[in-house]
Structure formats: structure tokens, C-alpha cells
Amino acid sequence: MTTGSGEQSPAVAPAAEGARRIILVHGTGHGGWCWYRVATLLRAAGHLVDAPDLAASGADPRPLRDAPTFDDYTRPLLEALAALPEGERVVLVGHSFGGMSIALAAEMFPEKVAVAVFVTAFLPDCSHPRSHVVEQVTVHGCLALIWLALMSSG
Q1: Cystine design at 67: which of 21, 43, 55, 61 (Cβ 3.0–4.6 Å)?
Q2: Residue 23 belongs to what domain range?
Q3: Plot region of 58 (φ>0 → left; ψ -120 to 50 → alpha; else → beta)
Q4: Same structural domain, 119 and 140
Q5: How many domains is the chain partitioned into structurally?
Q6: Does 90 lie in the same domain as 141?
Q7: Which range scores top for mean pLDDT: 51-55, 57-61, 133-137?
Q8: What pLDDT score was predicted for residue 124?
Q9: Is residue 52 located within the same domain as residue 105?
Q10: Half-sphere exposure of residue 95, counting CA atoms within 13 Å on the CB side?
């Protein structure tokens, strides 16, 4: 796994007793680097922290077109979870569009996720496909822009 600084993480080892493994997931247009201060504080408290760059983000130089599906975009997170030792459970923290990534990861690896924390993040519901969230943001985002334009013209 790649850290937010672009360095290769060491092999995944089990968390020490009392420590939590925490995976911080960035939003669109960012990379693992955006969690630097939070990761530093969590590590100082004794936790194992990873902040992977999702596909075509952060230090990953690929263009977004090389990650054509959401699963492709989220693959670095999914691979990190797949590599965890059996029985280890992590805390996933997602910000902004990272909420969609941690929701997918929790759905695919429920046995490896202790809790998912959505920090001002997109949160899909249980009755619609993931694309519904993006559709709603687009609709409401356009409505908000129209409302702002109307309010500022008065």
C-alpha cells in the first residue's frame, strides 16, 4: 500500500494490543497526504494508521480514465483490506467522496471493518445503488447554484 507521502508501506502486520488499525480515506481531488496531521496525532497515540492514495489520486500518476469504474478507483483501499491478517478489524474513516469508498469497502469486507466513520462525507443509503448519491448531489448541487444566483441578483 502507498502512504499519503507516496512511500511504500511496510508489510501489513497485526496491530499491537490496545492499538487500532485506522485507514483514512481522502475525497476526490486529494490524496492520502490530506490526512497528514490527523495521521500524525493518531500514530502518536499508538495507533497503526494508513492513508492510501486511491487510484489516479495523490502520488498515483495515472489519469482518472485509467480507473474507469468506482471499484477500480477504490482498488487501493480494497487491496489494503484484503491484505489484513485474518481476524483483524479496522476503523475506516472517509471524508467527502471517500465516504463512498469506505461504504464499498465495508460492504465487500464486513468481517474486516469494525466501524466506518463518515467525516462530512457522502453516505449511501441501503435502498438505492451507489450511483443514486452522485445523481442526487448533481441535482441538488445545480439547484443550490441556481438558488445562489437568484439570491445574489436581488
Answers
A1: 55
A2: 1-123
A3: left
A4: no
A5: 2
A6: no
A7: 51-55
A8: 83
A9: yes
A10: 16
Residues 29, 42: Cα–Cα separation, whole Å: 23
Instruction: Please give the grid coordinates belonging to residue 45.
Output: 497515540
Given pLDDT bands bounded at 50, 70 and 90, which one contains residue 2?
very low
The pTM (predicted TM-score) of the whole model is 0.77
- Residue 77 clears pLDDT 70, i.e. is over it: yes
Q: Please write the tens of the pLDDT for every residue from 42-57.
A: 999 999 999 999 999 9
Cα separation of 6 and 31, whole Å? 9
Mean pLDDT on 129-148? 58
Pairwise CA distance, residues 82 & 86, whole Å: 9
Do residues 17 and 69 both lie within one domain? yes
80 and 142: one domain?
no
Residues 49 and 107 in one domain: yes
Contacts of 112 (CB under 8 A, 6+ apart): 81, 84, 88, 89, 90
> To the nearest whole percent, how much of the chain has pLDDT over 70?
72
Could you give the CA distance from residue 54 to residue 62 in angstroms, rounded to a whole number?
11
Query: Same structural domain for residues 22 and 91?
Result: yes
Question: Phi/psi at 88 (nearest 5 deg)?
Answer: -80, 135
Region for 100 from its dihedrals, namely left if φ exceeds 0, alpha if ψ lies in -120 to 50, beta otherwise: alpha
Does 152 lie in the same domain as 92? Answer: no
